[in-house]
Amino acid sequence: MHPTDPAPENPNLIAFIPFLYLAWADADLTDQEINDLREAITAFSWLTDSERNYLYAHLNPEQTPSPNTLKGWQRIIRQHTNELSSELKSTLVTTGLKLANVHSPRTSPSAAIKEALERVESQLGVLGRESPYHIQRQAHPTQTNERNTTKSFDPQIIKAVLEGDERATIERVKALLVQEEFDFVSPYITVRQYREQVFKWCKLLADQGLGNTAYPTEYGGEDDIKKYFAIMETLSYHDLSMVIKFGVQFGLWGMSILYLGTKKHHDLYLRPIGRLELPGCFAMTETGHGSNVKGLETTATYDQQEGMITIHTPHESAGKEYIGNAAAHGQMATVFAKLVIEEVDYGVNAFIVPLRDQQGELLPGVRIEDNGHKMGLNGVDNGRIWFDQVKVARDAMLDRYASIDDDGKFNSLISSDNRRFFTMLGTLVGGRVGIARSALSAAKSGLTIAIRYAEQRHQFGPENGQEVPILNYRTHQRRLLPLLANAYAGHFALRFLTRRFLSRTKEDMKEVEALAAGLKAWSSWNTTRTLQECREALGGKGYLSENRIARLKNDTDIYTTFEGDNTVLMQLVAKSRLAEFKKEFADINFFGMVNYIADKARINIAEKNPIAVRETSREHLLDFNFHIKAFRYREMRILKSAATRFKHHIDEGMDSFDAFNQTQYHMFKVGFAYIERVVLEQFVEEIQQIEDEASQEVLTQVCQLFALSQIEQHKGWYLENGYMDGVKTKAIRREINELCWELRKEASGLVKAFGIPEKLLPALIKDD
Fold first, then answer.
1. pTM above 0.85, yes or no
2. Which of 242, 120, 135, 140 is nearest to 184 (CA)?
3. Integer Cα distance of 712 and 732 in angstroms
4. Pairing relationship of beta strands 299-303 and 403-404 according to DSSP bridges
5. CA distance linking residue 561 with residue 378, whole number of Å
6. Among candidate residues 678, 596, 691, 590, the one with its CA nearest the CA of residue 632
7. Over the stretch 61-89, which tens digit does the pLDDT of each residue have?
8. Which DSSP string corresponds to 509-524?
9. d(Cα 166, Cα 502) in Å, to the nearest integer?
10. What is the rounded average pLDDT of the residues 653-676?
């Protein structure tokens, strides 16, 4: 018998073929393991010399089998394994014995051969126990683990749920974005060319009446800020430089005139702003003060004799920083500066200041420098602005909340400079709503690209079998599907925020401001995290500019800073949550306040009984009541802890600033816990209003995945506080895995429901 014969006739050797193939097919066995097998074979006294030499020859670490030999063994396995039942494929021993019997039915393998094969299988250890699955797949090369991707719901129904009564606006904007004029720019164009293209896009949008949507009808608008938000969100499926330019021009610049000015300003400016005939800026932030806008140093000094206001930058770091529209196109700016009348500082107010003439030349006293190339959004012309004794008329002051009368006296119905300033800022909180919704659209785009790719991209799979879509892998599902759940949760939360913003009253304005601050931070942070995961999930494809992830990732990174630094915003949220206890701080002792807060959480104490903390049934873990109670308990517990610490520092004589600084970390957590609870509650509420049964069912699973993923993210906190036992957090992990598996087949439909036009999505895998 020739030692290299791939198909020996001897049944004694046929029985060893599965073991030989396994030893070399994937190089899973080490040299030492192969030598151990050789020693085992030596002990088989019933083998003839030629049989033993055959096996030795094919277990020589220094002389691996030829490709033809390996293919020959594979052919034998394929020829005969199909004739075996699943039961007989349960071990390598039974497989080998039956192969020998099929190949030579007249000669039954002896008990000695069976014993020998069992010894070899034992020598292989874990690999030997798993190998039947490997062998079985060799016999069925077309078999994969791919799940049925037929969708059990209609994506168009969920799309209608997501769009709600904004559908007509959304479809109109999408119809514009797919026109040839809005084709994406090449990544190789210059910054100057990019900026000019973005300006042209915004002019096209203005020509379609989209820029002045929020302005009163008498100025060509529709008096519909809800529609404006829908436009911003939908535009964000396209180029984000265009979105930010659009927001600066028609939002920050135009709405500062609308909300801070009066009729004389509206008459002069709103129509040309809405038509993009008067490009402008919103000049608030200064280099030296960043988020502390109350500390701005630019001055606006009024001279009664001249009847003029002088805008001046006192030193270099008081220059306006990172101002959109400033470096190339802005002709005017809303400038925030300290008003000084007869050497009295009346706090920060807003003024309209010309920057350029209609030919684009800077006016006397105005100095502007380009901020330069940025990480992203290079289609937006950000710049720094300094003013050197620039004079403007008294009417240039935006005077809805404060004014200078004919006698040169300052007038305002709001006596406090601080309260007046924050009232002014409160009217502009819509910018945070717009940024949060724009960030969400970017996350939806990234998820659509990544999930579509994961459906198309096949990789690995059974040996010599078909490769499977990478979305079939549990790790890939874990990477993307909880983030998909976040996107849906964020959508409904931002719809709630929009409703609250539109129906806000003077009494609840502070609450709405805090909600907008928190959801802007949550949404933009979630987008940053989502796009990074999408980039990695796409592998090398995600690194290519043509597939948009890189630009989405770079362009949205600044969203965590736009309209307020996220960390600062979350502290603002925490202050709002503590505001309900503010009156008690003055006349309640330390223990009284603790009891007051504890009363709010007492309803949750029953949840910490030994049964509840260890409950692991699927019915319980998927119950929205469990999720909401867990979120509320965490929020109230953290709020109690932060308030207790804050009050303790105050009682020890620390001033409020230092006390807040000492509890800053806890305050940050208060903000997050509050926002997460709001997001979950709004998701649950929206699901309950869906009439289509299949859509409600799949979105229920998405919401369950969102809730459990958040709980898992905070499992350390729940364990530390005794709200859950280890057995429960482990069960939650298993339940998340199962939800991801169940939602895997729905993933394509769920991203399709976002309704992003095909033209705005890259063809990730192109046909050769």
1. no
2. 242
3. 7
4. unpaired
5. 16
6. 678
7. 677 777 777 777 777 766 665 554 444 34
8. HHHHHHHHHHHHHHHH
9. 14
10. 80
